[in-house]
Amino acid sequence: MKINKINIRTNTKNYSILIGRNLINKINKILKDSNITFEKCLVVTDKNIPSAFKKTLFKKIDSKKIFKIELVPSEKNKNFITIEKIHKILFEKRFNRSDCVISFGGGIIGDIVGFASSTFKRGLKFINIPTTLLSQVDSSIGGKTGINNKYGKNLVGSFYQPDLVVSDINILNSLPKREIICGYAEILKSSIIDSYKNFLYLDKNIKKILKLKSPFIESSIFKACNLKKIVVEKDVNEKNFRKVLNLGHTFAHAYESTLGFSKKLNHGEAVILGIKSAAEFSYQNRTLSKKKLNIIMNHINRIGMKTDINNFFKKKDTNKILNFMKSDKKNNSERINLILIKNFGKIKIDFQINPLILKRYIFNSLK
What are the boundaries of each domain within the chain? Predict the structure, then answer.
């Protein structure tokens, strides 16, 4: 099976995304071919990863000194306490800026490790080995790192590009169906942003993709990553165009935050709810046609999760949801900035809405 390679070029760093099978077993050769060297390495692993994959990674990394720390992948652990745990090891083991930190886990671990790497001595080498479908198609690419606080999700962070991203598809077979659906959320989002042709590919092959069948899963991951590459290279620091990647996320982050990042609603599931809300709101504001709305809704209903927000919220949650949307980092005025859909491949990135209008929409959506 070949390795698919995507090269990303930014004004701060150029790096590659490698997508293929059995890549963890080839990590030493991959690092050499990528000209990435270091004397010390800290591997931060996700507690949920099967031990066989961890043993293989530790065995294959060629480094004089390898240190390890394992984290529970919870949004509640995305905080300064966890960052301090990582920094403590780096300082005590006398890491320098030519040494390396490797994230071996899902998006939560990648966000934490990326932020810790960017803030330790103003930055050291950072390799991301994403182990969930969600992280392989989204959070491992583009350099956005972040942690949460009481005001909302990812409100403290940095833009810090990795030195390398290695996505091994084999490890996805260890994931439960719920995690696959979470990753599919970002694949769906990317297709809506990209083109109707890309969306139709998903609509035709949704069952095969969700079952991780080749070559459908490889193609879907590659297309999502390639779209993000194009967007990131145009707007690294999310000043303008990159906002398209937040389609559904203003709603999604507010939904997650309202539930206190509980296991009742994972990030990817929240993104699916957020895409649905964004599509409905786009139709209500006459930016999206009824026909295209129905196409998106029919696809979402085939994913295999509860997509009615009434399964998660009541009318009494309206103000709480709205307040978290007001705290969204894309806002720059008293109005709330939404990313809406005009058509497949056509996204409106700066729709400024009066909070009272948005409150009415949320309230009417709930029972």
Answer: 4-174, 177-365
What's the CA dihedral at 212, 218, 221, 222 to 10 degrees? -170
Token code pair at residue 27: 């990590």
3-state secondary structure of 7: strand
Q: Is 116 exposed, middle or buried (0-12, 13-18, 19+ CB in 10 A)?
A: buried
CATH topology of domain 4-174: Rossmann fold (3.40.50)
42: pLDDT strictly greater than 80: yes
Query: What's domain 177-365's architecture?
Result: Up-down Bundle (1.20)
User: At what angle are helices 267-284 and 249-258 packed, to 10 degrees?
Assistant: 130
Q: What value does the mean pLDDT take over residues 78-96?
A: 97
- Residue whose C-alpha is closest to residue 253's, from 111, 142, 44: 111
Inter-CA distances, 276 with 199, 282, 283, 295, 300, Å:
15, 10, 11, 11, 8
d(CA 186, CA 161): 20
pLDDT band of residue 285 (cuts 50, 70, 90) is very high
pLDDT, tens digit (0-9, with 9 covering 90-100), for 165-194: 999 999 999 999 999 999 999 999 999 999
H-state helical runs in the chain = 27-33, 51-60, 80-92, 107-119, 133-134, 177-194, 196-210, 216-234, 249-258, 267-284, 290-301, 318-326, 355-365
* pLDDT at residue 152 in the model: 86
The whole-model pTM stands at 0.91
Q: What value does the mean pLDDT take over residues 60-70?
A: 90
What is the dihedral angle through the alpha carbons of 48, 52, 58, 60, rounded to the nearest 10 degrees? -140
pLDDT value, residue 1: 60
